[in-house]
Amino acid sequence: MKHKIPFFIILVISLLYSCTPMDHKYSDFIKDGPITYLTKLDESEVKGVGGRNRIRIVIPELDDPRASKVEIYWMNKLEHLVESINPSEETNIYIDDLVEASYIFELSILDDKGNSSIPVAITATSYGEIWESILQNRLIASQEREGNDFKITWDVNIDERLLGTEFEWRQGGQGGAGTPFTQFIDSAQTTGYLEDFKASSFRYRSVYIPEPDSEDLFYSSWEYYMEVPGVSEAEFDKESTTFTLPQLDDGFWVGYEFMWTDKTSGEQRSQVTHTNTITLQDYDGMAVTYRALYEFDDVAVSSEGIEFSTVRYVDLDRSNWYTAPETRISDGAPLNNNSEAQVNEKNKSAYLSHPLFFAASGTDGQISPRSHFDGDENTYLSMVKGYGKTHLDNRNKTGVSHSFGGVSSDGNDLYFMIDLGEEEPFNYFRMVYRGGQSNGNLKPQKVSFFGSSDPDCITDMNRWTIIQESVALPGSDLASNSSDPGHPGRVTGNVTIPESSYRFFMLRYDEWTEASNSVAIAEFYLGLYY
After folding, report:
1. Most CB within 10 Å of its CB: which of 55, 160, 285, 381?
2. Can you tell me the mean pLDDT for 268-287?
3. Backbone phi, then psi, for 484, in 5-degree steps?
4. Cβ atoms within 10 Å, residue 482
């Protein structure tokens, strides 16, 4: 049976529902009014520009006129600030005292009612001492004085962070006095000039910005250019052991330092002067190394060292020397360009007569001891080598080992003698090797020296006194094909030996290589240093 609901009941129910508000389900959530959001910042236009222990936040002009503040969080919202902004213009906000690091910043725009935009995040870096410590000075390719200016050149710069290099120097006075000068040379330049540069030093450093829009400058460490007078500008009075050097017209220059080794004790010694003269105390050395001292804002630095020999090397006058005469004429050997020849009579000493084993080849070859001291480095004395590698090998054997042009070694020592003309003191020798040698085959490796003032020494070997035995010859294993007369393979340099005083001098070849047949010397010197 179907029951019908009376109409009046339906009417009452309808009236009851019509009296309930339609928003009764969410009215509690909007009792303070609807939520209002400001226009969100554009991440592509907001910038964080790094500086020296700070970051500059750049907020562009905004389209939303309601914006009046910006709220910024960083360090996981442990740090926070709110700054006023003008939406009609760009705003720069500086966050100072930041540790050197990269940061994430969260930014929201606020209005005067406290309404906020949806936050955006940007990343920026703060720079400091660590970053600055790795900056390098722009590498100078060359530097030189050019007239009154100082010219500096670099390679093309490829570091966009480099702005340029600054220079500082002082002219006039010393020890911080004088007129200061500065100059900045832009990184776009590959050549720069310090104009009217009269000083002897300068310091320089390169200037960087970490990012294109950064407002803070960073600097590489100072580097220093320092001149020191050359040996030709130094004066030494041996009797008073006093040095005099130029008085430098440089406000950073503060003096000179001298360093030497005591030749008796081996002690390393040094002495400083704040003027341009110094008397070395208890000086007993053969050479000093001096350097110029500079002070740049309490930073003490020094130039490279210059070695100055306080020993004066004086070669003996070789024009009075005489040589050994004919080689083995008594044996009836033929005279020809490749074997034996007589020494020119004018160079012959009446006291010297003994056999020598000469051999020569080429246009520069001479079979005469006189070629040792004729002043011509293109002539040389060539002597046939003995057995094996030493003079002892040669003494113990007879026969033929090395031979050249019909001349052969037969077991005698290899040596030459010189008559100095009169008894003379000497304590060093110097030897010039034959030029054009590609190796050490033609060079003696070791030699011994003997002296005598007895004319009978030529026939009695017991009349000779040993000066020094088995002296290794510098450059004996090097090529001597350099055109440089000071090349280490061309000349031994002055080699000291015990001081002696004799009229007659003998050099014996002690060691040689087995390659090739002869040994060749172009010039030989004796001298005295004091």
Report:
1. 381
2. 95
3. -75, 115
4. 14
> In sequence order, what are the residues at sequence separation of 6 or more whose Cβ sits closer than 8 angstroms to the Cβ of residue 1?
none
Six-digit token pair at 399? 């026969």
Q: What angle do CA 203, 207, 212 make, to 5 degrees?
A: 175
Q: What is the DSSP string of 253-302?
A: EEEEEEEEE-TTT--EEEEEESSSEEE-TT---SEEEEEEEEEETTEEEE
**CA 321 – CA 342 distance, rounded (Å):** 17
> Which residues, including other chains, have CB under 8 Å from residue 111's CB and lie 6 or more apart?
38, 66, 67, 68, 69
Would you list the DSSP string of 430-459?
Answer: EEEEPTT-SSSTTS-SEEEEEEE--GGGGT
Q: How far is CA 161 from the centre of its chain?
A: 27
Q: What is the pLDDT of residues 393-447, one digit of tens each?
A: 888 876 667 766 555 666 677 888 888 999 999 999 999 988 777 778 889 999 9
Alpha-carbon span 371 to 137, nearest angstrom: 56
Q: At a CB cut-off of 8 Å and minimum separation 6, what does 284 contact? A: 262, 263, 264
Burial of 288 (0-12, 13-18, 19+ CB in 10 A): buried
* In the chain, % of residues over pLDDT 90: 60
Distance, in Å, from the CA atom of 37 to the CA atom of 212, rounded to the nearest integer, reads: 34
Burial (0-12, 13-18, 19+ Cβ within 10 Å), 517: buried
Write the CB contacts of 7 (distance below 8 Å, at least 6 apart in sequence). Answer: none
Place of tokens 């020592």: 413
Give the DSSP letter string of 471-516.
EEPTTTTS----S-TT-TTTB---EEEEEEEEEEEEEEEEE--SSS
Span 100-133, pLDDT tens digits: 999 999 999 999 998 999 999 999 999 999 999 9
Tell me the whole-structure pTM to 2 decimals: 0.62
Cα separation, 355 vs 329, whole angstroms: 8
Distances (CA, A) of 427 to 264, 363, 432, 494, 529: 17, 34, 17, 10, 7
Question: In this structure, how many other beta carbons lie within 10 angstroms of the beta carbon of residue 197?
Answer: 20
CA dist., res. 39 & res. 7, Å (int):
56
List C-alpha distances in Å: 69 to 36, 49, 65.
Answer: 16, 20, 11
User: What is the reported pLDDT for 335?
Assistant: 42
- Name the 3-class secondary structure at 55: strand
Task: Convert the pLDDT of each residue in 141-177 to its tens digit.
Answer: 999 999 999 999 999 999 999 999 999 999 988 877 8
Query: Please, what is the Cα angle at 194 between 193 and 196, to 5 degrees?
Result: 115
CA-atom Rg of the chain in angstroms: 46
